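The protein record quoted for completeness.
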Amino acid sequence: MQLHWHRRDLRVADNRGLATAAEAGPVAPLFVFDRDVLDHAGVPRVRYLLDALAELRDAYRERGSDLLVARGDPRAVVPAVAAALDAERATWGIDYSGLARERDADVRLALDDAGVARESVHDAIFHPPGSITTNAGDTYSVYTYFWKKWRDRDKPDPYPEPDADDLADAGTLETAAESLSDAEFDVAVGDLPTIAELGFEEPTAAVQSAGTEAARERLSSFCADAIYRYADDRDYPTRDATSRLSTDLKFGTIGIREVYAATAAAREGVGGEKDESVEEFQSQLAWREFYAHVLREHPNVVTENYKEYENDIAWRDDAEELAAWKEGKTGYPIVDAGMRQLREEAYMHNRVRMIVASFLTKDLLCDWRHGYAHFREHLADHDTANDNGGWQWAASTGTDAQPYFRIFNPMTQGERYDPDGEYIKRHVPELSDVTANTIHEWHDLTDLERERLAPDYPEPIVDHSERRERAISMFEAARGDD
């Protein structure tokens, strides 16, 4: 008997850890609701997680098996379940955060004490940390060099999914669960808790559909059209040129090899701009791995600046301005549209993420950690490595970061990437009757003009030009410049 511990791999197809276990089968699948992880969770992610687990459970039931579901400390749960099943080995996919690494080290020791073999595999990314390095053997801090090596490495094919013969039957799982009825944790077969039982309320945001089938539909639709427009259109939030696979990849409802294989197939037989566009999307997959490598090598980046300055950065951290940013009431239309999209959809377009992050750190002079925490709470696709990398890039504190003196002008960004004001009006209905040109000039209008055109929409809470100069001075002081 083999035990496979699902974590960020909520699928049966293209699952390296599950396929590894199935080679020696039969496999008993397990998921553990870990309170240490849930303490860092946001409501949209918990909703997506439960929906994805329901589909995963159904996939096992279709194969005559089921999903063991536990609530407790994995350090106790995994070895106990392995013992109840008389499992020879436990497998799982490696995670790269400091919390996960500490937990997994403890689980390995507990399995060793129980006499159960274990095998953890790199599943969420193609090339594990330490496999793409500088000539000196260091983790890259500049993406371009990382990308060139990542692009040229061979990519393995998707792993086969198990069939009924590879899996433990539901009766075996029931027997094991019953034998643990007196354990210090809860374990059952296929019995998923409600979101309320996990201590969360239902999200107000419309979280996208979860599971492998939904992810495959998104991937198929993307590869049929938008992937060929990706290079030109991906920065425009109304052009529907992004894959929307970020949440699926975060939870592993679809495998990275399956995604890459679909993009490689889309690239066959095309040339010129279409070929370049597909490669541009593939480069975004490489960004995921770049940040995973950075997190594995530097786990402290979750709470500390990656880039060291001579002096501390004197963040302003004004509570009222931070609150206005969170609520989408800054008086900068593209910023407010992004923050409201986040609230409504548990998602934000990537270009707009950069705009709102720049605005928080360079216009409001707020510490990036405030923005990271807000995204962690509200994004369905929050990923520690990716989100942290993005926030530190915007704040000029991270790897390959935006130079401190290059500061997004939110009005110029809105005019360039939402020229007709369609995205802004969709999420800021107070401006629905205002012309696009006027929206993009909102900061230049008089108070009386703004009151006449959109009385319910606020005036800009800061002056961008003035704050730009203050941001540059703030970073120059941190650098120790005279």
In short: The mean pLDDT is 97. The chain has 22 helices and six strands. The beta strands are 2-6, 27-33, 68-71, 89-93, 117-121, 186-189.
